[in-house]
Amino acid sequence: MARRAAGPALATPQERQAGLPAGVLVERRAQHPGLRLSLHAAAVAALLWPLRPLGDARRRRSRLMLQLKVIGTADLPAVLALQAQCYGPEFLESAEAFEAKLRAARHLHCSYLAVVAGEPLAYVVSLPVDDGQLPALDAPSVSPARAPRTLYLHDLAVSPAGRTRRLGHQLVRQVVHRAQDMGLTQVALVAVQGSRRYWEHQGFVAAPSPLAPVVAEKLASFGPGATLMRRALTPA
Ligand SMILES: CC(C)(COP(=O)(O)OP(=O)(O)OC[C@H]1O[C@@H](n2cnc3c(N)ncnc32)[C@H](O)[C@@H]1OP(=O)(O)O)[C@@H](O)C(=O)NCCC(=O)NCCS
User: Fold this and answer.
1) Is 228 in the pocket of ligand 1 (CB under 6 A)?
2) Which parts of the sequence belong to the N-acetyltransferase domain (predicted)?
3) 185 in any annotated domain
């Protein structure tokens, strides 16, 4: 634009080489939307640069305040309270069912409570399972796996008060790392309450049909909309 306002100008070497009149290449570059956008982005970034330490401090503080605690039986009241905030009545499990899953994965440290500033805001419960196995919803007893290749992520819940902190992602990442540390090859889960897209965004894909009858039967305990999903792991 500046070149046109300044009157007739000499063609640049590139313009001469391409046989174009003076100003064409500058004009095209000035009109390129990507360039305009990146100029705007650079200007905004320059304006915000002095405020950067404030954002860093806030991010550091919120990371420091988050504690991922391995769930023990003493945490069950907190887990049940979070469950009640996150699931419809048809998905609620008893304390006995949670305890059975924690017992089946005793000492494996694969279920976590997310505590922020002393307040439990989210949890994930997972346990290794043998091929073709899947605990039914609200199963009162669960046998420990003998030769597991799968970490079964049974339940992820983030309270409405915790839903702006990416706690779900952090808990899933923790479980995936734990499964890799344990030498397992995949994480599996049952998507309910319309959460299939959420899991797809986290790298899970629906298990192909038909499922083994024993798995299909367990899946049915989660209701008609439930989907078995899996995510293959790369070794840690
Ligand atoms: C689903 C749930 C665990 C997500 O937890 P969260 O901490 O709020 O979510 P995260 O921070 O991990 O992820 C946020 C992203 O997921 C998206 N998301 C959240 N819930 C979603 C859902 N049900 N379907 C699709 N996307 C969803 C958000 O829009 C956001 O998207 P963005 O990254 O593009 O901004 C939480 O909403 C919850 O506890 N729901 C009730 C229990 C439940 O349904 N659990 C899963 C059953 S298998």
Assistant:
1) no
2) 66-234
3) yes
